[in-house]
Amino acid sequence: MRDYYKGYLFILPAFLLLLIILGFPAVAAFLQSFNLMWVATPSFTLGSYKALASDPEFLTSLMNTVIFVTVVVSSHLVIGLGVALLLNMDLRFKWLWRVVAILPWTMPDVIGGLVWRFMFDTLPGIVNSVLLRTGISAEPIDWLGNPTLAFLSVMLAESWRGYAYPMLILLAGLQAIPRQQYEAAELDGCSAWQKFIYVTLPNLKHMIIIALVLDVIWESRLFGMVYSMTGGGPGYSTQILTLLSYKQYFQFFNVSYGASMAVVLATVLFFISLPYLRMSMRQQL
Amino acid sequence: MRKSKQVWIFIYAALGVMFVYNLLPFFWMVISSFKTELEVISYPATLLPNEFTTGAYEKIWLQEGFLLYFKNSLIVSLSTAALSSLVGIFAGYGFSRFRFPGRLTLMTAFLATQMIPGVLLVGPYFKMLTIAGLYNTLFGLILAQTSITLPFSVWMMKGYMDTVPIEIDQAAEVDGASRLQTMFLCIVPLVLPGLVATTIFAFLLSWGDLLWALCLISEQSKQTITLGITQLVGQFRVQWSEIMAATVIASIIPATLYLILQRYLVQGFAEAAVKE
User: Fold this and answer.
1) Is B202 within a domain?
2) Closest CB from B119, B209, B229 relative to A114
3) What is the DSSP secondary structure assignment for residue B255, as one 8-state letter?
């Protein structure tokens, strides 16, 4: 249409708002990490980044984040695909299953962290209680006091809480697969497994990539769940980058140092999201 | 597709496993909140309360100030959802209906902002709000959370509006409607389910936030419910039954919202995501 320039006016409020509340602080964090902003004597330095490379707490947190995101996102995709396949069938009480499937996702991650913390509590927690009653373990297990077990517990809790988001994306993808393709496969004598491999998965490829990238972004940004469940402990065995950056910035007031960690995280996330960005843009052309 | 009886048994068994897995933490949360202070810390834990009491709720709601936290959370989440949906309607309409130079670049920029972790922004934000005199205010918190929700709202609204045929705009133009009138009177009513989904999504993001409230609110009377709960933990006068009562209170709003509006949310989500 001729009045295409009016488009700018419609975008303007969002653009200005984001410039102030998002663009500016993002640039400020970047400058802070080089010691160039809000300091008495601004001078460019790579000091924070150099310190990162030899800080065992940072390196552990980085490693934890990578493991955490890999494990949690993989489990989300597997559980999410499984549940999406189930929900895509002609079920009785479909609405009930759908509600139950998504309910964990409605729970704020901070709250989820607290509930699971109590479930894993050594003495009054339900996990140890069930293990004792079923005779699997006579001794109460100190789930959140042991570094390895604590890390596993946090990953389990987030696997439970967050899978509905990729599941909904995959379900939407499943519903878009034309029925004729399955019918054709049946005529060719394909088994259910073959239909899954040769019809479902190829059609779903696009959505799996979207779900994968978006979930990696969400889980890398996770904060509340770990903060409330373990606080990063014991030691820093469950510490993830977001938590460490927050602590450096707001508890130890190492502003430049905390900012540099956040910049590292943001840079990695940006590169991870590139395929998704490119894909979305191609759709808009 | 016809399936044999065994296959259906397997399917419903799998659904049963999901049912238990998904609901167990909710069950535990609710059950524990009705236990007495003594029972909630006994070992091994009881699966059902021996003595049913609502004492934890009374204590949390009246003595620990959760009435106020709840109110603060409602104010912040409703305002954030309203602000980002309103601004999102305009931007969504702009991106969906106008082909202007730089449109694709701007859209990419909006999408890319979704990838920015809050922890990068929150430090400078603290400084900005302090300078602007908005530190430790609900208004400052609303602005901050909008930075997280707005990029989603814009893209979701654009996706829903793309499903409405452009002929409707053209017909409205012929009838002499301005662009604003077309947007509010013709397009928005048609994408109402999508608008609902967008608003709820922003509300849920805001309601569940901890990081921003933790860093931008210092006074107890301005805490949101998620922040209030984390402050309870570790205080020796507070029992697990009370913390669980608080988590029930904090979970009720998002869960209820979802139950009432799940049809819109799933449908809207599907439309926005599948569209290629």
Assistant:
1) yes
2) B229
3) H
CA gap B23, B267 in Å, rounded? 23
Residue A226: predicted pLDDT: 94
Chains A and B: how many Cβ contacts under 8 Å? 305
Sequence-distant (6+) residues with CB within 8 A of A200 are A85, A174, A177
The verdict on residue B21 lying in a domain is: no
Length of chain B: 276
- Reading the block at residue B48, the tokens are 């059902």
Tens of pLDDT, residue by residue over B187-200, are 889 888 889 888 98
Q: What is the C-alpha to C-alpha distance for residues A176 and A207, in angstroms, rounded to an integer?
A: 11
Contact A124, B43 (CB under 8 A): yes
Rounded CA-CA distance B234/B108 in Å is 44
Number of domains in chain B: 1
Give me the pLDDT at residue B1, please: 52
Task: For residues B173 and A203, give the distance between their C-alpha atoms in angstroms, rounded to a whole number.
Answer: 39
Mean pLDDT, to the nearest integer, of A103-130? 90
The Cα–Cα gap between A231 and A246 comes to 11
Which domains does chain A possess? 48-284 (1.10.3720.10)
CA A142 from centroid of its chain's CA atoms:
26
| Exposure b/e, A204-230, CB count within 10 A at least 16 = b | beebbebbbbbbbbbbbbbbbbbbbbb
pLDDT in tens, B2-23: 678 888 899 999 999 999 999 9
- What are the percentages of helix, strand and coil residues in chain A, rounded to 5? 75, 0, 25
Are A124 and B18 an interchain contact pair (Cβ–Cβ within 8 Å)? no
Tell me whether residues B115 and A217 touch, CB distance under 8 A.
yes
CATH code at B209? 1.10.3720.10
B217 in contact with A, Cβ within 8 Å = no
> What are the chain A neighbours of B232 within 8 Å (beta carbons)?
none
Burial of A57 (0-12, 13-18, 19+ CB in 10 A): middle
B164 shares contact with chain A (CB less than 8 Å):
no
Q: Place A78 in a pLDDT band, splitting at 50, 70 and 90.
A: very high
- Asked if residue B54 belongs to a domain, the reply is no
Which chain A residue lies closest to B14 (C-alpha atoms)? A86
Whether pLDDT at B276 is above 50: no
B44, pLDDT greater than 90: no
The ipTM of this complex is: 0.88
